[in-house]
Amino acid sequence: MIALTKPDWALWRARLIRWGGIARSDLSLLFSRRWGRWLAAAACLFLIGCLSFWFLFIKDLPSADRLLSYEPPLPTNVRGIDGSPIYSFARERRVELPYGDMPEQMIHAFISAEDKDFFTHGGIDYLSFGRGIFEYFTKMGSGERARGGSTITQQVAKNLLVGDEYSPTRKIKEAFLAFRIEDTLTKQEIIELYLNQISFGRNAYGVQSAARAYFGKDVDRLTLPEMAYLAVLPKAPSNYSPERGAERALERRAYVLREMEANGYINAAQRADATAAPLGTIARSSDRRDAERPYDGYFMEEVRRELLGKYGENDESGPHSVYDGGLWVRTSFDPKVQKAAEQALRDGLVRYEAGRGWPGAIDTVDVSQGWRKGLNSKIVAVGYPDWLGAVVISKDRTRAELGFQNGTTGDLFPWGANGPRRGIGGRAYDFLKPGDIIAVKKEGNAYVLRSPPTVSGGMVAENPHTGQILAMQGGFDARGAAFNRATQAMRQPGSSFKPLVYAAGLDAGMTPATIVVDAPFCVLQSVSLGTKCFRNFSGGYAGPRTMRWGVEQSRNLMTVRVANQTGMDKVVALAKAMGVGDYPPYLAYSLGAGETTVLKLTNAYAMLANNGRKLTPTVIDYVQDRRGKLIWRADPRPCEGCNMADWNGKPMPRPRARSAQAIDAMTAYQTVHILEGVVQRGTATILRDLGRPLFGKTGTSTGPTNVWFVGGSADLVAGVYLGYDKPRPLGGYAQGGTIAAPIFKQFATVAMKDMPVVPFRAPPGIRMVRIDRASGRRVFGSWPTSDPLASVIWEAFKPESEPRRTIRRDELAKPKAATTARPTSGDSEFLQARGGIY
């Protein structure tokens, strides 16, 4: 900067004064004239108008640069354990497609329908824009809506940046944004945004979802008339729906085809053929049978709850929200196992209530107000795919007319409802009345009445190696109630809790051959409460017996004695460590008086089958974001070198083992080995003919209000209970072995059909010893082991606990005294399969 001296400052001051005077005189001369004042006023108004326009329309306009990083709301896609898609969570059904995957003819159809000059204009069609503004003011107050006159670029601005307010202000903002968008994005990027964003009705957003919703196919398989029909829908999906506006849709489609021909995209022959074609749309998904829909039962609801807990519901919760974050979720859902669990539990519930009579209507509606609307407003849970919800429209002595959700009708004759009405004399048909919503099944040309059970239950199937939940059924039908009895119902497990008591006893030094007295057992509770005496379920006493025998026969008195000798503090500590529940140390809890869920108890049995290693039950294996990046996984163990690119041909790397033990490995195996006897000789012999090594325990709570079975094989463990939601007695004949175990058998027959027959593997240290299961004494001599009812069995012992009491074969009332104490070839195979040492 040049420094100024004092003379310089004085010179510049004099010049400024002179120039200011000239300016003042000139302005005074200008404003002294009338036209000068008008000019000044106009300048001021122009400035004020520009500032107002900027503040009203431009200042708060979003930047078009946001579209460069715009990500449309995408559904969360759920896959099963084999990677197959099974469900999705979304409010807007959308599949995002890049421009290159969109058929050119389909783009031509949309341009012809919406904006034929799209590829040539700069964002606005001035003639249409002006016409739209004019119509707005001429129709103001008439209730009519002016035609939009918006280009595709303006519609992108409206849908993504401005909003759908009906006003000239919005149109002006939309126009300015259209200019910005054209400067920011290419035409291909604009049309890609448009075709992925717009609504087509049927909750379909974007052309790919629309193609699936209306034609059941992807866009690359659409025909010309189908593409033209989709191009009709964005203007007014409800007006051109195939259900209510088929004729209007055909007329509008013909217009689009004519425009395509006029624009040179198709020839006259193509237009004529396409115009003559029918719409060819498929029925709405809500009108199709449930069997054709994706899985949406209890398992998916559990997945949804877990995802909501992790990521929230919408974009306000974060970038990975459930309903619009575009997540990819791999679950442990096994379709085959799930279907087997659903069928087995439903059949078991229906079988229990068979012969009790029809319980009455599921719900009622007023048929005078429109029976179909009333029926569709109700949630009708009928369970089986071939059972249908129906409303009685009318009835006389010879037949009842039924109406169904899809609008069709049918007949129910008296012979189809001749069963008794529960609790009331007479046939069920006599109690039907118009407006009743009932469950029916089609037989021939008529329908027969069916009874959804009032009793309920839950079932879970788990992989005992990983903790993955393969199937989950929380009741007869998930549509009846969101309450998941597999995870939420707290029930008393009864005798199915006993294995934890015996496991605690084994940990405390007992053995499967320990003698426990089956005899009266009473304890003094307190001075005020007096003495508490326990009893066996069937009454009577058996005297001294081995622990194994007590488990197989589910003897309450022997269980209480083991708990008392071991210490209830150790029993409840083990139950807590295995995730079953946190109970007070009272002897009644050794008989299953504490409440738990079928999921928790099944997981505890899975830990036993997993040699005592801790398991966390999971329904989600891992979660990826919309770009495929892994953001969560159930198994967080690091695995160095597991990337296939790093494999050097040596043995494949594996994550380190889950080494945490919930219970001693040898104790766990001894418990499982004892529970194999429950299937072979005890309360679950109904499972013996499945022809594979199985373990498990039945359970019947006081009342009985609940019946249980939990168990399985070395590779699949499942648990099931049955009971009323508001606990009440099931009937004196109800037992876990007669009601719950058959449900498991039906499930296992299907779920385990193609699984390899694998024995339970004994951990290192276990020794297999021949034992007389009545006396608990060690038996020397060669004995057959294939007979499940044999008095001599192989028993699992820890090294320090082998029995010292012995008995030779010739001391028993058995022919052919043994000449050697070495195992036979059959015995050797038995030991080898279990990893035991003779």
TrEMBL record:
It catalyses: [GlcNAc-(1->4)-Mur2Ac(oyl-L-Ala-gamma-D-Glu-L-Lys-D-Ala-D-Ala)](n)-di-trans,octa-cis-undecaprenyl diphosphate + beta-D-GlcNAc-(1->4)-Mur2Ac(oyl-L-Ala-gamma-D-Glu-L-Lys-D-Ala-D-Ala)-di-trans,octa-cis-undecaprenyl diphosphate = [GlcNAc-(1->4)-Mur2Ac(oyl-L-Ala-gamma-D-Glu-L-Lys-D-Ala-D-Ala)](n+1)-di-trans,octa-cis-undecaprenyl diphosphate + di-trans,octa-cis-undecaprenyl diphosphate + H(+); Preferential cleavage: (Ac)2-L-Lys-D-Ala-|-D-Ala. Also transpeptidation of peptidyl-alanyl moieties that are N-acyl substituents of D-alanine. Residues 804-828 are annotated as: Disordered. It is found in: Cell inner membrane. The keyword Cell wall biogenesis/degradation applies. Residues 804-814 have a biased composition (Basic and acidic residues). Residues 358-455 form the Penicillin-binding protein OB-like domain. The chain crosses the membrane at residues 38-57. Pathway: Cell wall biogenesis; peptidoglycan biosynthesis. Residues 457-747 form the Penicillin-binding protein transpeptidase domain. Residues 83-260 form the Glycosyl transferase family domain. Pfam families: PCB_OB, Transgly, Transpeptidase. InterPro entries: Beta-lactam/transpept-like (IPR012338), Glyco_trans_51 (IPR001264), Glycosyltr_51/Transpeptidase (IPR050396), Lysozyme-like_dom_sf (IPR023346), PBP_transglycosylase (IPR036950), PCB_OB (IPR031376), PCN-bd_Tpept (IPR001460). Its EC number is 2.4.99.28, 3.4.16.4. Residues 815-824 have a biased composition (Low complexity). Keywords: Antibiotic resistance, Carboxypeptidase, Cell inner membrane, Cell membrane, Cell shape, Cell wall biogenesis/degradation, Glycosyltransferase, Hydrolase, Membrane, Multifunctional enzyme, Peptidoglycan synthesis, Protease, Signal-anchor, Transferase, Transmembrane, Transmembrane helix. PANTHER family: BINDING PROTEIN TRANSPEPTIDASE, PUTATIVE-RELATED, PENICILLIN-BINDING PROTEIN 1A. In the N-terminal section; belongs to the glycosyltransferase 51 family. This is Penicillin-binding protein 1A. It comes from Sphingomonas naphthae.
